[in-house]
Amino acid sequence: MVPSQLLLQIVLLILIDIYIYTSVFRTTRRFNPFLRNFVRIGIWVISAAAITAVIWYAVSEPYYRSMSIRQWIITSVIIIYASKIFTIFFIFLDDIQINFRRFIRFLKKRSHTTIQGKPITRAEFFDKVALVSATVPFASMVTGILSGATDFRVVRKTVFLPNLPASFDGLRIGQISDIHAGSFFNKTGVQGGVEMLMREKADVIFFTGDLVNYQTDEVDDYINIFDKVKAPMGVFSTTGNHDYGNYRKWSDEGSKQKNFKDMLVAHRQMGYRLLMNENYLLTAGQDKIAIIGVENWGVGPAHRFPKYGRMRDACRGTEEVPVKLLLSHDPTHWDAEILPQFPQIDLTFAGHTHGFQMGIEVGNFRWSPSQYRYKQWAGLYKTGDQYLYVNRGFGCIGYPGRIGMPPELTIVELKRG
Predict the structure, then answer these.
(1) Is residue 361 within 8 Å of 373, Cβ to Cβ?
(2) pTM given for the model
(3) Phi and psi based region of residue 64 (left: phi greater than 0; alpha: psi -120 to 50; beta: remaining)
(4) CA atoms of 277 and 274, how far apart (whole Å)
(5) Confidence of residue 2 (pLDDT cuts 50, 70, 90)
(6) Of residues 55 and 195, more confidently modeled
(7) N or C: which terminus of the chain has fewer CB atoms within 10 Å of its end residue's CB?
């Protein structure tokens, strides 16, 4: 039996196809017979393939070996229908003007007068605007995959902390987040991002979770790239919601647990010190600051956004340390628990949102669909004396590209003041 939600999706896609086909039908009337049939049949072949893909995606078992195929298939469907929906907007505007002119002509005819001018035909409008408009989302999304996914940008911020010990004044912290190794397809581009981070010569580097999408062995082919992430004072990491294997089915609980143990091994192989609800005291001369790391803690359904983080355990032993830096993958943790319960945390590093991998950031103007889900979705935030930095992510999830929201390498400099 077809689930009602899936049936509704199929009906909606067919209605979109029918509406667009009425314009294609009229547009192709003057084509030669071979080209006319090729275009008309081709439209429905593509639609049938897309709808079949949607059905397969919904009812198939998402086992790991088919996950990359599933991602690329559903990405193709999204690109196709995003272009169609964009086209529909212009067709609809054309329909409005056509029907409006017909109504005026009807009124003029009843009054025995004529209206001057020739109405713009549906075919003309479709040729000049609708077909061209369809290429806009298509080109944007394809470009976002081919170049946007590895168009890394360095974002630099300075944070002033009044209790920062003199030995750490000017400390440069590098941050990467949300690697999502299972979405990579351009190994050279990934290596370029790591090299760009290394050129910044950070004193210490933080990785704030989501190494993979579904399963730890996604990162196997990239360990020899990410083990090049080095810093004089060390590389510290924590886990994100995708690192626990909650987004795929497992044959048994033992397999899932082994997957997570493999995750711990992967961090060690890359040379990262994984902080699992624990802390590390960074020392410079006689001065110390605390690096605190918690497992994923997020607001939302527990099976997708688990609350494994234990802040009290993680902070134990840091009471006398003047500055405390926290690695916590999900920025919702900040408002929900850190601000109200842990005022001693000076600066929190998070990721998770990816900035939706889509948005506009020009000067002081910032917009992304991510802002409708997350209060803190990208960049630096401050409440009272506490700071939060949300990294836009290194990799991708779902749509394997970025549009107007480049993958980010962060450099935060700490200053006294």
Answers:
(1) no
(2) 0.82
(3) alpha
(4) 9
(5) low
(6) 195
(7) N
* Amino acid in position 40: R
CA distances from 316 to 38, 82, 320, 324, 337 (A): 70, 50, 10, 12, 16
CA 200-201-207 angle, to 5 degrees, is: 80
Contact 330, 298 (CB under 8 A): yes
The per-residue pLDDT for 115 is 47
d(CA 282, CA 260): 27
- CA 135 centroid distance within chain: 23
Which among 32-36, 42-46, 303-307, 351-355 has the top mean pLDDT?
Answer: 351-355
Amino acid identity of 306?
A: P
